[in-house]
Amino acid sequence: MNTFKKRYISALLAASFTVAPFAQAFQEGDILVRAGLATVVPDDATSNVFVGSDLGFGLSVDNNTQLGLTFAYFFKDNWNVEVLAATPFKHDVNFAVADPLGTGNQLGEVTHLPPTVTVNYYFMGSTSAFQPYVGAGINYTIFFDEEFTDTNSGAGLQDLSLDDSLGLAFQLGADYKIDKTWFINGAIRWIDIDTQAEFNLSGTPGRVDDIQIDPMVYTLSVGYRF
C-alpha cells in the first residue's frame, strides 16, 4: 500500500472517530436543555354563558406563541423525565357569536402558565442522529391576570376569574443531533386543560361552567446535551 493510500485511510479513520460521537444515543445520566418557540392552539369548546339564565352563546380562545423551555433528565437509557416551561401565555377570550352584548367581539384576556411533566421513551439506538420519542404525563395550568376589555368593564362586567386546571398530557417529538452536544427538537403535545369562569355583570353573578381549552402545543427549539 503506497503512502498516499495509507494517509487517505488514516484520514478516513480519524474522521470516523471524530464523527462517531455525533450518532451516540442519549443515555442514563444525560441532561437536555432546550429553548425555542412554543405555540398554544386551543380547541376551545365551552358551555354557554350564564347570567341569571342561559344567554345562548359560548366563548372562544385564540392562539398564542411564547418562549418555550424544556429540561429533561435520562434516568435510564432511552427513558427521560421532562419538564415543559414557558413565558406566560396570553390569550384573547372572544364571544363565540358576533358582538352579543354590543361591546365588541372580544370579551377579555387571560394569562396562564402550563407547567407540564412527562416521561418519554426514545425509540432509536446509537446509530441514528434522528431520535424520535413519545411521552405522557401531567399538566397543571395556572390562570392569572384575567380581565375584561375596557369596553366590557364599562358595561358592568367585573371580577373575571378562571379556575386552575389539572389534566393529562401526551406528546410526540424528535431530536436531531447536529453534533455530540447540540441538536434540534420538534414536538407536538396535546394537553387536557379544563376550567370554569366566574364574573359579575352589574352585581349579578355570571359563569361559564365548562371551558375545554384542550390545546395542541407545538414547539420548535434548539437543545444542548450535558
From TrEMBL:
Pfam family, one: OmpW
InterPro entries reported for this sequence: OMP/PagP_B-barrel (IPR011250), OMPW (IPR005618)
Residues in the signal sequence: 1-25
GO BP terms, alphabetized: transmembrane transport
Keywords: Signal
Record-linked SUPFAM superfamilies: OMPA-like (SSF56925)
The protein's name in its UniProt record: Outer membrane protein OmpW
This protein's GO CC annotations: outer membrane
